[in-house]
Amino acid sequence: MRADTSIEVAIIGGGIAGVTAALGLLSNGISVKLYERANGFREIGAGIGLSPNAERAMLLLDPRIHAVFRSLATPNTENWFQYVDGFNKSQQGDGEELLFKVYLGERGTDFLNELVKLLPDGCVTFQKDLIKITEANENGMAVLHFADGSTSNADVVLGCDGLRSRVRGHVLGVDHPAVCPSYTHKFAFRGVVPMDDAVEAIGKEKSLTRFMHLGPGCHVLTFPVSMCTLLNVVAFVTDTEDWPDTHEATVPASKQEVLESFSHFGPVVKAIMNLLDTKLDKWGVFDLHENPVTRYVSEIGRVCLVGDAAHAAAPHHGAGAGSAIEDALALTVALKKINEVLTTNDSPISRNRAICAALSAYESVRYERTQWLVESSRFMGELFEWQTTECGRDPIKCHDEVESRSHKIWDYDVGDMVKQVSRVLDMKLSEARSEGQQQ
Ligand SMILES: Cc1cc2nc3c(=O)[nH]c(=O)nc-3n(C[C@H](O)[C@H](O)[C@H](O)COP(=O)(O)OP(=O)(O)OC[C@H]3O[C@@H](n4cnc5c(N)ncnc54)[C@H](O)[C@@H]3O)c2cc1C
């Protein structure tokens, strides 16, 4: 048994969760191999916004991550996220009534492509499609099996493989209902529009800061990206039909379909829809709300779920990537600590028990908040379309929900999370040590 060597971590998936976890672990001296199915890293789309909680997590994970984020962040022209009635034509201004606004802590950015430049050579292998994991071979390591027939060993496996995670099937069992995400019965038309065209059509104010245009059965999010050279448009529509193919994230759509979906909306929303390309895709919004993930760590205890693999939420809070970065920090803290315990060798604990304790501490601290995010993201999608019984179209009630839920995300005390992980892990390590001594 290897008692005094550094742990080896395998990361499945090179999205925000996998890359930030890799950087955090590497900067704490832990050996990491990242396996990505695709033949390169891919951005999820223009303009992922990262809120202050995510910024604090980046700083603690590896300040270089935060520096990259800052260098790419697109500033808003004002610090308010404004929610307007996109449906009823107002007699004032441009025809949209301001319902409420909340303080804006986010900036749109696309930073995965820059972030991966921080990864050292040899750490990432592309075109590695994980198909199976076998836990605990003869030397106690997990074995990863890839579609090309190759295998690899690791002490710890982090399943950062996104919404349609295969690692989730290993952790929960392939027949568990959460293995397949569910269609939320909302889809989104997404597009980016040259900023000059947007300013001409809807004016500077509406183009250069973040707006949510509310209405019955549809809502539209707009915000500037790429240093204000483009306007990002995400136009959500409630859908009574089933999604045509649950394995496909997008299906082709026509401009006609967009215009029809928003034909009953106000003038600003219609003008925005007119700006979209003639050929576009619609994105099915899937999440893990209907069938929640019941555990983040496998029964044997060396494999865990991170980011969307664990808690894929609908994008209505714009917080999934931020939450994945918080996960990466929690795991880094836990794995760093057991790595120190195992490599200094002054503590009678087996490698297996130490790893189980670390992953279990991660799950204990992260489960409740991240599952709440899945639930709350659904609620927000309904609120923006005046579908909740609690708020209906009452702007004060809508404001109060949006503000309190957003602040629950943004104001999260990431420093306290780090302390909690350490505290829970200490407890689990001491339980594990005494169990070990009794055997
Ligand atoms: C329209 C939209 C807008 C959003 N806006 C925001 C926002 O503003 N702010 C925010 O914080 N979040 C936002 N999100 C959510 C955010 O994008 C996700 O939560 C985040 O990207 C999840 O990262 P991840 O690394 O967990 O998963 P992913 O980004 O899905 O990465 C998973 C990776 O795993 C790889 N993979 C999958 N299976 C395998 C396999 N078998 N073997 C090897 N590799 C595999 C995939 O190729 C992929 O690279 C938005 C989401 C959407 C859809």
Put the structure in a nutshell:
The chain is α/β, with parallel strands linked by helices and 439 residues long. The chain has 13 helices and 18 strands.
Jot down its keywords.
about 450 residues, alpha/beta, 8-stranded mixed sheet, 5-stranded parallel sheet, binds flavin-adenine dinucleotide
Characterise the protein shown here:
The protein is of the alpha/beta class and 439 residues long. The strands form four sheets. It has an eight-stranded mixed β-sheet with strand order 5-4-13-14-15-12-17-16, with helices on both faces. Strands 7-2-1-11-18 form a five-stranded parallel β-sheet. It has a three-stranded antiparallel β-sheet with strand order 8-9-10, with no helix packed on it. A hairpin with a 4-residue loop joins strand 9 and strand 10. It is elongated and about 75 Å long. The two termini are 17 Å apart. The relative contact order is 0.16. The model has no long low-confidence stretch (mean pLDDT 92). The structure holds flavin-adenine dinucleotide (FAD). Flavin-adenine dinucleotide (FAD) binds next to helix 1, strand 3, helix 9 and helix 10. The site of flavin-adenine dinucleotide has 36 residues, from helix 1, strand 3, helix 9 and helix 10.
Layout of helices and strands, plus pairs?
Layout: E1 8-12, H1 16-26, E2 31-35, E3 48-50, H2 52-61, H3 63-72, E4 80-85, E5 97-103, E6 107-109, H4 112-115, E7 124-125, E8 130-134, E9 142-146, E10 151-154, E11 156-159, H5 167-172, E12 182-194, H6 195-207, E13 211-214, E14 218-225, E15 230-238, E16 250-254, H7 255-261, H8 267-275, E17 279-287, E18 303-305, H9 308-311, H10 320-344, H11 351-383, H12 395-410, H13 414-438
Parallel strand pairs: 1-2, 1-11, 2-7, 4-13, 11-18
Antiparallel strand pairs: 3-6, 4-5, 8-9, 9-10, 12-15, 12-17, 13-14, 14-15, 16-17
Helix pairs in contact: 1-10, 2-3, 2-10, 6-8, 10-11, 10-13, 11-12, 11-13
Bound molecules: flavin-adenine dinucleotide (FAD).
